[in-house]
Specification:
Rossmann fold; seven-stranded mixed β-sheet; 10 helices
Length: 242
Amino acid sequence: MTKRARSFDAAAALYAANRPGYPPALFDAVEELAGRPLAGARVADVGAGTGIASGLMRDRGAEVVAVEPGDGMAAEFRRAHPGIPVVRGDGDRLPLADAAFDFLTYAQAWHWTDPARSVPEARRVLRPGGALALWWNDLDLSVPWIAAQRARIGERTEAIGLPPRESPDGLGLTTREVRWSRRIPLDRHLANQASHSAFLLLGEAGTRAFTAAERERLLALFPGGTVEESYVVTLRVARLGG
């Protein structure tokens, strides 16, 4: 795992407290594209982090096993979801049995893998007809204030760059977009931004300066101190096996 991927361990509590969840419509789409419900399915959630997706899939009746490489994230996962087993590993070397799962999910995590390794691993652990589901939850850049903020973030963190999102070739992936929003306090919005890897690598001083400037800008737009974050979840699902 890269230094950037490991940066979340030091900020696991910040991540858990401020990152957005996922709307029910996302999991409806996962089930539709996979051709089976999550209820009663065995699911391996890889790069599970603090368990945001794992907990929601368990709530839909799935039998979830989480895979997480980071010490801090795994500890936060266990604190938040004591009823879900979490094993240490990553998508390039899954510590899972062959043909044991109906779903293999990557919530915000596929881009930390090497597809040359993670695709064969997905094929190995999924049962015939099992589904690989990848998704990313991004702020909606069609909203003007969000686009303007993203441009400022890009200027501040350009040297750090963004991890690539390579879709695995030859799997017959089907793509679906799910739009949703949440209303949260301004300070929570800013804390959510600070939990992203670009800011974790930028450092405390740089993040603090950016956050102070953003608070002033956004208070002019949202004087009540409540921000509506609009999101687009990009979902990609492939059915593997017979």
